[in-house]
Amino acid sequence: MDAQKFIEQKSLAMETITLDDEALLARLGYKQEFKRDFSRMELFGLFFAIDGIVQSIAAVLLFSIPYGGPVAMVWGWFTCCCFIVIVSLAMAELGSAAPTAGGLYYWTFMFSSPKYRKILCWLVGYVNTAAYISGMASVDWSVATQIMAAANIGTDGAFVATNGQVYGVYCALLVIHVIMACLATKVIARLQHFFVFLNLALFLVVIIALPIATPKELHNSAAFAFGRFQNTSGWSNGFAFILSFLAPAWTVGGYDTIVHISEEARDASRNVPFAMISATVVLSVLGWSEPASGLSGFQLK
């Protein structure tokens, strides 16, 4: 009887939250059209999984190593993430006040001057569209290259992928993306628990298992990891350091993802900003600790 009463109270609470979400959108002149299946943890998981801290860093080492080496990878990351968190806080406030599926497009229309709002909305809409098309393509391409690199390492260099083979894996990943996008919202939401676990496990492997497995003579000192500046880019040192911001900006810069699905989130005015800020901070910290611990080459006894 107590269990049944608990279930009834929970159902009533969920209905109240749903009504609050609909009422908030109605006050904004916006009609709810999507099902709300994402919980707070699942919103966090979506951002966390999309950014994929380990694989994202691996894909953008090209923008860290030449532009300052260890200093750029550690302190460049830290500096850029401070600014990223500030931007995330501002977007979280907007996401709390207007958690609409239109996200940036809707905000631009509401807060822009009536004279320029149409052209600005057009720009925001098309820039976002181009960004997500190119973003998905670049993510799948980086995954394809990493899969082929793993095959090369696993065969001690015997297997060397051709451009055609890499492109074939890339196309297969695009098809998988399409299939996953066709899944029900509830299924996609529940999958985030597994993806969070998978990404955390991969992170722990990199910062714990990898240093343990690395021969001691290949370890770097803490002075090298935190103080060695190596600029091989050809740019001046200051500008090269700024260019190293491309790595964290790419890895942690996807916080607007949660905004775009805010109409599919339960208790969106609270859960959307919470997930956005917490995921940004967690990814910033994990992303900083990965190169810092890996470069210093610590060894657990």
TrEMBL record:
Q: Which Pfam families match?
A: AA_permease_2 (PF13520)
Q: Which GO terms describe its cellular component?
A: membrane
The residue range of the signal peptide is none
The membrane spanning regions, by residue number, are 43-68, 74-107, 119-139, 167-187, 194-214, 234-252, 272-289
Among Gene3D superfamilies, the record links this protein to: Amino acid/polyamine transporter I
- List GO molecular-function terms, semicolon-separated: transmembrane transporter activity
Q: Read off the InterPro entries from this record.
A: AA/rel_permease1, Amino_acid_permease_CS
Its record classes its membrane topology as: Multi-pass membrane protein
Q: What is this protein called?
A: Amino acid/polyamine transporter I
What is the originating organism of this protein?
Answer: Mycena pura
